[in-house]
What does this fold into?
Amino acid sequence: MIIRSMLIDRLTKAFRAAYGEEPVRLYAAPGRVNLIGEHCDYNQGLVLPCAIDRETMIAVGDSDGNHIEAVAVDLNGQRDRFTLSGELPKAAEDWKNHVRGVAYFLQQRGHVLRPARLTIAGNVPIGAGLSSSASLGVATGLALSRHSGIELDCSELATIAQQAENDFVGCACGIMDQMASACSVAGTALLIDCKTMDRQPVAISATLSIVIADSGIRRTLTESLFNARRVECEAAARHLGVEALRDLKPAAVEAGRKSLTDTLYRRARHVVTEIARVEVAIDALKTGDLKLISRLMRQSHRSLRDDFEVSIPPIDQLVDIIAESIGDRGGVRMTGAGFGGCVVAIMATDAVEEVVASIESRASETSDIKASAEVYMPSQGAQIVG
Ligand code: GLA
It folds into this structure.
């Protein structure tokens, strides 16, 4: 992993090389891991993510024209340049659309942006389900707004980054990733009620650690599969006569089962039971109740695998391997949108060393995936770096 000081160095050098001067400021926004509450945000439910100690960082300086210029240092120095007035067309590359979309929606809200030059780099693994995209959107929003003398509330920053992803990139994602990236408080998880948009830091017992294992599996069709799940959830809510699945308790979904196809019933059952699990997880995290954490994460994974159908066999295998090695010292499940990426484990800190060592050796012995596991720290949301 590239550490923060190396990232600063890399960005500053790239800025000098691209624009022949020093950047004025550096801004950063982290990736996130979702602890529990998967596929609940766009159903207006509860989610419990935390920001992680991996981030996208942006160096900013002035530009003399009426343009935003940007260099993606990690993508072979790809460059973008667009004008701040007039139409803003979409680009072919996703990273450009995150930047363009954020600039566009800031202006749509009436903010006057100062022309800027950016270099962008990060250490959030791309496509691993740790929200490298959201961290790019939020970091861009913070950089462009602060450079223009605008102070935004973190939830407005999150909304702008989400709009950019929805409308410019074409992923119908919910608000969780951007909120976690923009609003998290160091050392805590962030409970977000995606109906009221209330948010609250949730303490994580000092006895617990968060370990993320990356399966190395990257899926390209994630956006279309994700969008399809969202459409199914909306259809289930419509059939059950509510605005969003959040408005139903598990018993109400059971009662309405006959009005749904089997697929829509299972999608709805996942969402409502997962929201109920978030409610229970809040206390379990605070008190470090390992048995309860273990049960909730097991139930969450099974529900995502069998009812929501967003897991894949190698991820299930990885979850099983880790669950076996953790035993009753914590829990593990897939995290993020699914179809590959990472699994998250919450476990007793004193079990970490042994579990991490066993994950890598057992994963390579018993399956064809190459998993690497590391401890991640719950971190602060978007911030000025220097
Ligand atoms: C992706 C989306 C989020 C959320 C998760 C699943 O990360 O961007 O909005 O829906 O999947 O919980």
